[in-house]
Amino acid sequence: MKKFTYTEKKDTRSGFGAGLLDIGKKNPNVVALCADLTGSLKMDAFEKEFPERFIQCGIAEANMIGVAAGLTIGGKIPFTGTFANFSTGRVYDQIRQSVAYSNKNVKICASHAGLTLGEDGATHQILEDIGLMKMLPGMTVICPCDYNQTKAATIALEKHVGPAYLRFGRPAVPNFTDAATPFEIGKAQILTEGKDVSIFATGHLVWKAIEACEILEAKGISCELINIHTIKPLDEKAILASVRKTKCVVTAEEHQRNGGLGDSIAQLLSKEFPVPIEMVAVNDSFGESGTPSELMTKYGIDTPNVVSAVEKVLMRK
Amino acid sequence: MTTEIFSSPIKINSPVKSTDELKKICSQVRRDILRMVHAPQSGHPGGSLGCTEFLVALYFSIMKHNPKKFTMNGIVEDIFFLSNGHISAAWYSVLARSGYFPIKELATFRKLNTRLQGHPTTHEGLEGIRVASGSLGQGMSVACGTALAKKLNKDSQLVFSLHGDGEIQEGQIWEAAMFASARKIDNLISTIDWNGQQIDGAVDKVMPLGDLKAKWTAFGWDVLEMNGNKIEEVISVIEEAKKHTGKGKPVMILMKTEMGHGVDFMVNSHKWHGVAPNDEQLQNALAQLPETLGDY
User: Fold this and answer.
1) CA–CA separation, A80 vs A37, rounded Å?
2) Is residue A84 helix, strand or coil?
3) Does the beta carbon of B41 lie under 8 angstroms from any beta carbon of chain A?
4) Could you list the active site residues of A?
5) Is A78 on the interface with B (CB under 8 A)?
6) A138 contacts chain B (CB < 8 A)
7) What is the rounded CA–CA span in Å between residue A117 and residue A88?
8) CA distance B223 to chain A (A)
């Protein structure tokens, strides 16, 4: 399989901050809103460079979403920033009515998603946000895998017209994708080709899946790994092409099994090409305090879980 | 009867001035509201009838707007948001009568495949609507955002919003109230339809609002009051409110109205919040409101 290396670990939220600064320089209609988490979202550089286009909303996320919707009326492109929990569940009705149903060009940018938020615990570790967002008609849902890709996705969103949800995280993770690769919304990224099993991963689980592929290769198993950075719209063509070849599937994500990427892929495959599928995801549970790595292990979304899911699905093939 | 002003589209910057003409429009809008909710036996006549003078004043006298060439961004136009979306019948009638879409389309209100959804939406492409509303409490935030966009665009026109008094029980309203004054959104004039009624009964029983003037003043707003069912007063107070804009504070108008105003058996009763009149009640109500511009 193709070898993946990285020179440093970086947090995906910093990729967002860097991308936001870039598009702020490029397009004067880009505005940023934050609900008292400027530092956490890495929006400080944008705030410093464009104070007149940075709107501090305080700890009032519902209002922030409405203000963002209103800013689009007048041609602005608002990027809202807060934790994923407060970007989705807390403001679901505001997103549903004022953004999604109203088809407003709001980019909801959400950091600290999933278990890897760590020690703050389950109150802040949303594992339902992908499901919430993908259910909204017309909503684009993006979950990039590293710093470079998060930056590229943020930049791509400036040109994208319509409501979008961009999910990223807190911890430093291997930054392995090519910084020069443009981000194509809705286009799955084939990381390595293989013949025995298709692994579809998103977000932080993409690197875990790479590690799993290396372990499995040593065992003589050939994995095809595809990064599904856009969960909606799903790249059905790429997924089906891979599965028609491998005839079994493992999905991997830092999210509840219900409503996540695995769910979307299972729905597609059950209709178009039913094959055995195993899902590496949190199984109907809240998280808890701990280090990101401890939590990934305890809740079954770490590298060994991807390895065992592949071994299990191969038995069912 | 069709007056001269309705035979040609209302032109931007040429507002109707005569209060007699505005009163005639109000009578016709009230007839529209009653007939619109009667046809599907569904809708919200009470608040719609109560806010008729306000909406007519805005669209036929106060606002600079361009009904014949609706644009979502509304650059160099005044923009209105109806946050209490359930009084859509009144808004649709005023939009149609001011030239945004064909008046005959009012007959489709709340029916399958209509652009005139029960609550306003942009989803069906209805001219005049810029955001969906109905789930209460969201419109003030949206209005704040558009007011900020106008400032960023160096667009000196104003943003107006209307809210129910029951609606301001929603927490998001107070988030927006704090935000608007903190961010000095002084190109926004919000109005509360203070009719004292909500679905479950009197606002004072369901969830008393306390001293509204003191509350909005304490939140940093410039607060005016008016009787919303007297067209002369509505015009003069909104004109006065416009003079308060541009001074560092958002402007709030507390508008006392009668729910169901103009129909004697509907006045001041929460029972007509969301109930349509039957055939007999419709005829009784229409008999109280002269047909001035021609029914759709």
Assistant:
1) 11
2) helix
3) no
4) 61
5) yes
6) no
7) 16
8) 21
State pLDDT tens for residues A225-246. Answer: 999 999 999 999 999 999 999 9
Mean pLDDT computed over every residue of chain B = 94
Q: Are strands B188-194 and B251-256 parallel, antiparallel or unpaired?
A: parallel
CA–CA separation, B55 vs B48, rounded Å? 9
Q: What is the DSSP letter of A127?
A: S
Q: What is the mean pLDDT of residues A2-9?
A: 95
Which residues, including other chains, have CB under 8 Å from residue A12's CB and lie 6 or more apart? Answer: A111, A144, A145, A146, A147, A149, A150, A168, A169, A173, A203, A204
Given CB atoms, is B130 within the 8 Å cutoff of chain A? yes
SS3 A140: strand
Q: Are the beta carbons of A67 and B130 separated by less than 8 Å? A: no
Q: How much is the ipTM here?
A: 0.97
- Residue whose entry in the numeric block shows the structure tokens 């003037």: B213
pLDDT band at B258 (very low <50, low <70, confident <90, very high): very high
Return the biggest CA–CA distance within chain A.
Answer: 59
Domains of chain A, first to last: 10-174 (3.40.50.970), 189-316 (3.40.50.920)
User: What three-state secondary structure class fits A143?
Assistant: coil
pLDDT at B8: 38
Q: Do B145 and A101 touch (CB under 8 A)?
A: no
Query: Residues A82-124: pLDDT tens digits?
Result: 999 999 999 999 999 999 999 999 999 999 999 999 999 999 9
For A260-315, what is each residue's pLDDT tens digit?
A: 999 999 999 999 999 999 999 999 999 999 999 999 999 999 999 999 999 999 99
CB atoms within 10 A of CB B104: 9
Q: Does domain B20-286 have CATH number 3.40.640.10?
A: no
| Tokens matching residue B260 | 């169901």
Distance CA A97, CA A94 (A): 6
Please determine, for residue B16, whether its predicted confidence score (pLDDT) is greater than 60: no
> Using omega within 30 degrees of 0 as the cis cutoff, is the peptide bond preceding B9 cis?
no
Chain B: nearest CA to A53, how far in angstroms? 8
List, as own/partner pairs, every contact residues B153-157 make where C-beta atoms lie below 8 angstroms and the sequence separation is at least 24, other chains included: B153/A74, B153/A75, B153/B75, B155/A74, B155/B75, B155/B76, B156/B187, B157/B64, B157/B74, B157/B76, B157/B77, B157/B78, B157/B79, B157/B187
| DSSP one-letter code for B9 | P
Q: Average per-residue pLDDT in chain A?
A: 98
Q: Using the beta-carbon criterion (under 8 Å), do A53 and B144 form an inter-chain contact?
A: no
Look up residue A260 and give its two tokens: 């996540």
Answer whether A82 touches B (CB < 8 Å): no
CA distance B14 to chain A (A): 24
CB pairs under 8 A between A and B: 117
> Nearest residue of B to residue A63 by CA position?
B141
Report the pLDDT value the prediction gives residue B10, as an integer from 0 to 100. 39
